[in-house]
Amino acid sequence: MWMAEFTLKVRRFKPEEAEGPYWESFDVELDPTLSVLDGLLQAKDRDDGSLAVRCSCRAAICGSCGMKINGQSTLACKTMLEEAQSYAESHAVAAQEDGDKTKGNGQTEIVVEPMGNMPVIKDLVTDMESTHWTKVRRVTPWLLPEGDPPEREYIVPPESMIDVTQSMACIQCGACVSSCLSMEADPDFIGPAALAKAYRFIGDPRDAQTKERVHDLAQDPHGIYDCTHCFSCIDACPKGVAPMDQIMRLRRAAEHEGIHDQNHGHNHMEAFTKIIEKKGTLDEAQLLQDSYAPGIKGKLVPKHGAIKGLVESLPTAIRGIRTGKMRSLPKLIPGVHAKLPGDAQDHVKRIYAHAEDHQVELNLYIRGEEADQEAPETEVEPEPDEIADSESRPGTDTGLAPGAGS
Amino acid sequence: MRLAYWPGCVSRGFTPELHGSTALVADRLGIELVELDRANCCGAGVIAEHNQELADTLNARTFALAQRTGLPMMNICSTCQGAQSECEQRLRDSEYRSHINETLAEEGLAYEPEGFSNKNFLWVLVEDYGLDRLKDQVTKPLNGLRVGPFYGCYILRPKHRLGYEEHPERDLYLDRLIEALGGEVVQYDGARKCCGFPIITMARDVSLRQAGTHIGDAIDADADCLVTPCPLCHLNLDMQQPEAAKVVNRELGLAVLHLPQLVGLALGFEPKQLGMRKHIASTEWVEERLEPVAA
Predict the structure, then answer these.
(1) Tell me: the pLDDT tens digits for A383-394?
(2) Ramachandran quadrant class, B143 (left: phi over 0; alpha: psi -120 to 50; beta: rest)
């Protein structure tokens, strides 16, 4: 077997000792295709039996060994040593904030830390209760069907479960929670793992509380509109759940259920979409006004929080006028923004008409990402009309499905 | 070098200095920009949230307009790059693409991924123009100016969608550019985090806390300024900076430059020409730092 030397620089913390967290480096010698977890276990075996690490299956199934490797939240058992080494070498400066980039022998160290957004119990073991498990329970993670249970099991056609397959792949490792940048700024954010779990039930055709669930998560100030769309959880997830994509589906479901949330999430999406239909490019003044108070210029009374939102944005606007950023009418007055030249705007409107009619959703998780090939013979492209008329929510084996809005 | 140029919405809206400085810098570098004036908004992920097919068709239209020029496409907004790359990824599916192209056919357009490329200005400078060639054009090196890179999420993540397999070091380009221009890269915690802009109207405090924290961290790391290739990050980091200061309850006041402004300074343009006076956070300190020390 080919062996190589690696140095793991581990962030350690012993609660029983007075000193705070500190760094300790361990030299390990292993086959480079083995995992960082294997490296940690060798260090524990040879150098220090007190090194705390949580693990079980070593095959990315149990979700126990979530941690940060070179600053990236992931599973230690799914990260190969050579892969971590090569990343550490190219990104040494970026990954290590404090001091030495390399050890005396000149080899770059692989940096290993406990997960973020969670209290550390010891070394690489975190307490997932407050920012993970409590939040998963918060979204009622079980089925709430209607009526008497069937005599035997609930029968569901497989194709109607496609929509939730991706969120079902979650192994509760917490890597997404660890990486979440919204949660860093707002520890109360329900977060990527729990919201992906919420979609697993909201997208389930057997569940009878869809509207109530979506309403709850849309109105909560720490709910679906607290996600800042940073993609961190998508990169962190070792199982391809893409939690942020599930949060976006929840927003789509909220729109479909007609929920006008107090966070202006629905207003913002609706305003943005309508402006592009009318103008082709973004009229920022209009977006600002309509995000807070659609119809404020008409007879509608502004909704809860609208006046506050608009007033809060005033100082920023005034400063913008002063420096010359917004010293022109189209930037100040909603609606003055020019539309696209010639017949271009008509073509954009026509695209809207087509797309709003079909609302086809391509699910790459089902469909596969390298799909530029002939479709398998068994697959038949659904006619757009069939898709639009389809009663059942999600769609077909092809992964081409009508969206939640159809 | 000729490129089909998509400026995006914000660079002509609330950050007009970005569009202006890009034009100056590109011209000086001998990059000819053919503006796609009929193209539409990328949807910034918001339209995709509402209706995926709509976002994909709108962006396929922009790609097709770029393809009609026969030139590679360039954008100057991380958010455009991210939103467009997301659609580009789905449009690789030939069955889905033909469905989308049916809609485009009425305008005489069709998008074919073969040979298509869409890169933001940062990627173009590093991968196509070349930092060595850029260095040769520098007439006023940044004199050790301490610059904190702020990448913006949409050109960093998700990696599998943004060409990181082919270019695994795209998340280091801004650092390299700063060095090539004669500046010093400031390492601080927020360089690859989120500015918070996407939720400014929905969770204002959380949004501004993100911006304020990163600016504060950069100040603590002794930065003279930040630089970003994303105008939406610029809105939260610069335009909202006084509001962010209130939320994080500390004094801020750190200049935030657009990528072409930083390049422009090193090429010898005056701060005013580059629209730096339009910023909310004063750029005076940067101007002072760049003045040659009196003998």
Answers:
(1) 444 443 333 333
(2) left
Mean pLDDT of A370-375: 52
Amino acid at A176: C
Peptide bond into A384 cis (omega under 30): no
Closest CA to A391 of A210, A205, A255, A207: A205
Residue to mutate among A281, A289, A397, with most B CBs inside 10 A, is A281
Kindly identify which residue of chain A lies nearest to residue B235, measuring between CA atoms: A316
What would the mean pLDDT of A186-215 be, rounded to a whole number?
Answer: 97
Measure CA A380 to chain center. 31
Does residue A372 carry a pLDDT above 60? no
For residue B149, give the chain A residue with the closest CA. A94
Q: Which ipTM value was assigned to this complex?
A: 0.96
Q: Do B239 and A316 touch (CB under 8 A)?
A: yes
Q: Are A217 and A257 in contact (CB under 8 A)?
A: no
- pLDDT digits 0-9 by tens, A5-33: 999 999 999 999 888 999 999 999 999 99
> Are residues B120 and B74 in contact, defined by beta-carbon separation less than 8 angstroms?
yes
Residues of A in contact with B172 (CB under 8 A): 90-91, 94
Q: Which of B10, B22, B16 is nearest to B195 (CA)?
A: B10
Is residue A406's pLDDT more than 50?
A: no
When pLDDT is cut at 50, 70 and 90, the band that residue B91 belongs to is very high
| Angstrom distance (rounded) from CA A313 to CA A270 | 19
| Exposed/middle/buried for residue A168 (C-beta within 10 Å: 0-12, 13-18, 19+) | middle
- Closest of B48, B49, B118, B47 to residue B78, by C-alpha: B118
Q: What share of chain A in percent tops pLDDT 70?
A: 84
Residue A394: its pLDDT value, please?
Answer: 38
Helices A306-323, A284-292: crossing angle, 10 deg rounding: 160
Segments in A81-209 forming alpha helices (H):
81-90, 92-95, 134-138, 162-168, 175-179, 181-185, 192-202
Q: Cβ separation of A185 and B210 shorter than 8 Å?
A: yes
Kindly determine whether residue A372 and residue B89, on different chains, have CB atoms separated by under 8 Å.
no
Chain A contacts in chain B segment 190-249 (CB below 8 A): 191-194, 196-199, 201-207, 209-210, 213, 239-240, 242-243
Confidence of residue A231 (pLDDT cuts 50, 70, 90): very high
Q: Reply yes or no on whether the pLDDT at A103 is more than 60.
A: no
Inter-CA distances, B249 with A62, A295, B71, B252, Å: 42, 35, 48, 9
Asked if residue A99 has pLDDT above 50, the reply is no
Instruction: Using a CB–CB cutoff of 8 Å, tell me whether B165 touches chain A.
Output: no
Predicted local confidence at residue A106, as pLDDT: 58
Structure tokens that stand for A376 in this block: 């398998």
Name the percent of chain A lying above pLDDT 90. Answer: 66
Interface size between A and B, measured as CB pairs under 8 A: 248
HEC profile for B234-261?
HHHHHHCHHHHHHHHCCCCCCEEEEHHH
* C-beta neighbour count of B242 within 10 angstroms: 15
Residues of B in contact with A273 (CB under 8 A): 46-47, 50-51, 54
